[in-house]
Amino acid sequence: MRPFAALHVGDKQVLHGGTMIWMEMARFGKKLVEQGLTGSRFGNISVLTEDGIVITCTGSMLDEIDEGQVVLVDRDRECAGDSIASCETPVHRAIYRRTDARAVIHTHSPYAVALSLLEDVVMPIDSEGIAFLGEMPVVDGPFGTVKLASAVSDALIDHRACIARGHGVFARGGDLRDAYITASMAEHSSKIRYLVVWGRSSTKD
What we know:
single chain; about 200 residues; alpha+beta
């Protein structure tokens, strides 16, 4: 069990531009909360490095991430760090094993979660969502389980994002910025679809 701040891995501790990994995670964690994509207490963020996966610890506040709230875990198997890492670590691990993702963001975005309880596949109807996001499969499985890890990683082989039913969005990217953009688009497209499709239905009722 080694908090990331205690590691001595030299240049492998930095991202593009010399920014420490936890600082980059903190920057996007704040953006997620500020933009209403998730509550501070909900969700998790990870980055794949040469040494393994740097992921937020369980109980972390996404808008208050510091070097003590991220941990390095093994990419391919359970390790001691899992005991303090996010409970969704198995899902992140499966995504990195089965896709080309270099960063993963998981949010409890309200409109995406709402749609996941109404639909089995979320099809964007806004122009940006159609052009850049594409459909988002809705998958099932209790959070943090092998079942959810398998379902999410399978969906993200061919999609940029998916939604765990009643739970939240998993977005992958080539880096944190890419994953953040995908998570943001996922909620924006979900909001537009919910208001147009389901809002219209409730008005007719």
